[in-house]
Specification:
Number of strands: 15
Radius of gyration: 31 Å
Shape: rod-shaped
Length: 270
């Protein structure tokens, strides 16, 4: 077996190189033996041999014989290089939105794991310990307690189609307040956030009910809906030390009661 190297890269692996030389009568390039050759042809591309210049404007190449073990190593190395390049391209396409989240989730191992402290930018996708992929919603420097599965203002799950409308949970601070456009399920309805740094309960303020599109997540039978109510508290609490959430910046959102921290819908503000 032979390897043909040009500019430091292997351009071909073959059983018998196709050597060429010039016909002394016509000047045309014809096949030749290794001893007669001035160049070598690789899938139609011509290379000069041994520092020669018999083929104008052709790059230089070196032909050398390789043993079986080296051949296997070269083949594996090239396959790994192709695999790595393909993986990088796949991730770039997913982050650009060319590849949908479900398809990306089927190849989650190609994505880098979430870590901290790391400066993340909008659109980057990372793999978390729950096996899901999350897309960055806001540029930020990650912290230990701002994990993708809880910091909903910073990350959104993209790899599980059932998570398009996750259950609403009461934000505890700026780091997990909902951003504008966020989708949730609450009281057997789907809701879309109308504002950034949204800490209000859907149905109270700051959310628009989404039109019904088939069965809702955790939909309750009609006969039982009137008898049930949410057991979750509705008073949000801000820690004040979270990352910026759509302009919240960790400070008290507009329209909050200074005494109790209760959200005040605009209709009741003075």
């Amino acid at each position: 077996m032979y390897k043909i190297i040009s500019a430091g890269k292997i351009v071909a692996l073959c059983d018998a190189p196709r050597y060429v030389t010039r016909n002394p009568d016509t000047g045309a390039l014809v096949e030749a033996t290794a001893e007669e050759a001035i160049g070598v042809s690789v899938t139609g591309t011509l290379y000069n041999l041994n520092g020669g210049s018999g083929i104008p404007d052709a790059p230089e190449a070196v032909v050398s014989e390789v043993e079986g073990g080296e051949m296997v190593f070269i083949a594996i190395s090239q396959a790994d290089a192709v695999s790595t390049t393909s993986g990088i391209a796949f991730v770039a396409m997913a982050e650009a939105g060319t590849i949908d989240g479900v398809t990306a989730g089927e190849h989650a191992d190609l994505f880098s794991p979430w870590a901290y402290p790391v400066n993340y930018t909008v659109g980057q996708i990372r793999r978390y310990t729950d096996g899901k992929l999350y897309k960055c919603l806001q540029a930020h420097t990650s912290q230990a307690d701002w994990t993708p599965d809880t910091a909903v203002s910073l990350w959104v799950s993209i790899s599980d189609p059932a998570e398009e409308w996750p259950e609403w949970s009461q934000p505890l601070g700026a780091h997990d307040a909902y951003s504008k456009g966020a989708k949730v399920s609450h009281n057997w309805k789907h809701w879309i956030s109308d504002l950034d740094a949204n800490v209000w309960e859907p149905g109270q303020y700051g959310w628009t009910e989404a039109p019904a599109e088939g069965p809702r997540r955790n939909e309750q039978p009609a006969d039982d809906r009137g008898a049930l109510h949410s057991l979750r508290g509705t008073e949000p609490h801000h820690s004040g030390d979270g990352p910026p959430a759509g302009g919240a910046g960790g400070h008290r959102p507009e329209g909050r009661d200074c005494k109790g921290g209760r959200p005040i819908p605009p209709d009741h503000r003075k």
